[in-house]
């Protein structure tokens, strides 16, 4: 057989190149909404039809088709559903409390997200890893019915083992536990915590692949970056905090990394549960329903503070939802935009929105770490700073250890916090979850925290950037060119 085919292998290779290249190029041209992305992929495929097509198959198809649990209404029936519906924020309530421009933000959220802005929530800010881990472990230890945990990184270190032991203990006392870890994030520690959890009786799985042999193609580049824990359908935790001891002052002292997490109760818990339950169903096929996973009615009154919306985004039907919310927020700002982000690589649309706001007289302050855990990303960020500094925005390098927090507050009234970084991966490739928070007390508390950080930060100036050696500036720009793939 091989002897028969051997004289024709150039023809076979040509036909294979034509078939793979044409298929991949047509798919890219028909499905990519960003013209630069489409041109880039088509160019790679034309230059190398077989290798380019394989690369596109692995890293270029950034849309997962899956059925989703749209929102909490999927989980609620009868009287309970009617009770939750009474907490939905109305246009009139938002306009009365926050003004017409934030009522417009509510309309935007209603149209681009899968979840409703609800009243009657509470939110507490956990400003250190030790605070967050302590509160989460306390909730696990007090669980009576169910725990649903989704995270990007769950290390098998001293903090990770504490969580694993607490989850195993919960299973032993009869609590139903489900743990979902991203397939990439599960590789951050060797051996993985998966074996420890499974040996202890915890039902655990990985998102979008398996840890040993490789990721689920053609979606190998897509990850869940969400951090959600829901306990007994009554309290939830979300934000930027992974489970790893590098964020614990107990183990790393003053050198530990910083981050911010949030504890919430109220109607938003049901929406966070719906997001994590949809991811669990995608990974395992199991529906989390029935009395075990029942969402408890809020203990607060409808219409009471705080108004919160869960904003889920990712490469499925919710693609670029976080990007749309950020664009809307920047457009309504009148006084201040305060941003804290560890990886600040916004696309041209977001940069233009920030520049336009600054030119309107809005004070735009962007805080990034002085010390970053990803050197290449930090250099690419630096290569982009001049675009903002030339147009009235201010950039600050925060002193101290690396800070992983993702915080945004506008005019001391509207906040956007959660797992999304302002970089191409978070805005287009990762599954993320954030909270849109309309509450003056919460937003002003965030502003005060950011202002304290700025007070000890080093301001980045155009002069300081231009005084760096040419070779360093050139390297920054080269790395910036590759920023969509970092």
TrEMBL record:
Keywords for this entry? Cell membrane, Lipid biosynthesis, Lipid metabolism, Membrane, Phospholipid biosynthesis, Phospholipid metabolism, Repeat, Secreted, Transferase, Transmembrane, Transmembrane helix
| Record field: transmembrane | 38-59
Asked if Transcription is a keyword of the record, the answer is no
The segment(s) forming the PLD phosphodiesterase domain are 220-247, 399-426
SUPFAM superfamilies, sorted: Phospholipase D/nuclease
| UniProt entry tagged with the keyword Signal | no
Q: How does it sit in the membrane?
A: Multi-pass membrane protein
Origin, by domain of life? Bacteria
Against Pfam families, the record matches this protein to:
PLDc_2, PLDc_N
Instruction: List the InterPro entries.
Output: Cardiolipin_synthase, CLS_N, PLD-like_dom, PLipase_D/transphosphatidylase
- Coiled-coil annotation reads none
Q: Where in the cell is it found?
A: Cell membrane; Secreted
Q: How would you classify this enzyme at the top EC level?
A: transferase
Could you tell me the EC number(s) of this protein? 2.7.8.-
Q: What is the documented function of this protein? A: Could be a virulence factor.
Q: What is this protein called?
A: Cardiolipin synthase
Which species? Answer: Pseudorhizobium endolithicum
């Amino acid at each position: 057989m091989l002897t028969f085919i051997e004289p024709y292998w150039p023809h076979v290779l040509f036909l294979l190149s034509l078939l793979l290249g044409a298929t991949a190029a047509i798919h890219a041209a028909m499905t990519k909404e960003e013209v630069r992305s489409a041109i880039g992929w088509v160019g790679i495929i034309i230059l190398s039809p077989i290798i380019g097509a394989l690369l596109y198959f692995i890293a270029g198809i950034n849309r997962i088709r899956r059925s989703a649990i749209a929102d909490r209404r999927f989980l609620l029936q009868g009287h309970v559903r009617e009770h939750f519906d009474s907490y939905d924020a109305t246009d009139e309530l938002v306009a009365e409390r926050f003004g017409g421009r934030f009522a417009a933000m509510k309309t935007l959220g209603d149209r681009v997200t899968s979840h409703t802005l609800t009243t009657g929530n509470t939110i507490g800010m956990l400003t250190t890893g030790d605070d967050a881990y302590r509160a989460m472990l306390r909730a696990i230890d007090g669980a009576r019915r169910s725990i649903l945990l989704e995270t990007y990184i769950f290390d098998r270190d001293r903090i990770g083992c504490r969580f694993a032991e607490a989850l195993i203990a919960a299973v032993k006392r009869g609590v139903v536990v489900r743990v979902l870890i991203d397939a990439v994030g599960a590789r951050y520690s060797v051996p993985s915590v998966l074996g420890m959890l499974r040996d202890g009786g915890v039902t655990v799985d990985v998102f979008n692949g398996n840890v040993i042999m490789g990721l689920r193609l053609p979606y190998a580049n897509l990850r869940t970056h969400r951090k959600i824990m829901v306990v007994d359908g009554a309290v939830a935790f979300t934000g930027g905090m992974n489970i790893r001891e590098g964020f614990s002052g107990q183990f790393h002292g003053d050198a530990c990394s910083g981050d911010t997490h949030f504890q919430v109760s109220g109607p938003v818990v049901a929406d966070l549960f719906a997001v994590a339950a949809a991811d669990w169903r995608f990974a395992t096929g199991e529906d989390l329903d029935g009395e075990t996973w029942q969402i408890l009615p809020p203990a607060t009154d409808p219409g009471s503070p705080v108004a919160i919306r869960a904003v889920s985004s990712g490469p499925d039907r919710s693609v670029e939802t976080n990007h749309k919310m950020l664009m809307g927020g920047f457009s309504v700002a009148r006084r201040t935009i305060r941003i804290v982000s560890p990886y600040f690589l916004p696309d041209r649309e977001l940069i233009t929105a920030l520049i336009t706001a600054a030119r309107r007289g809005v004070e735009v302050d962007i805080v990034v770490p002085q010390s970053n855990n990803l050197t290449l990303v930090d250099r690419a960020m630096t290569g982009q700073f001049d675009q903002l500094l030339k147009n009235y925005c201010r950039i600050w390098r925060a002193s101290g250890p690396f800070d992983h927090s993702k915080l945004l507050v506008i005019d001391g009234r509207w906040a956007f916090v959660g797992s999304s970084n302002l970089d191409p991966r978070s805005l287009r490739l990762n599954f993320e979850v954030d909270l849109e928070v309309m509450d003056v007390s919460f937003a002003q508390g965030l502003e005060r925290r950011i202002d304290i950080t700025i007070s000890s930060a080093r301001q980045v100036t155009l002069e300081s950037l231009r005084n760096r050696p040419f070779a360093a500036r050139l390297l920054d720009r080269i790395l910036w060119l590759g920023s969509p793939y970092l």
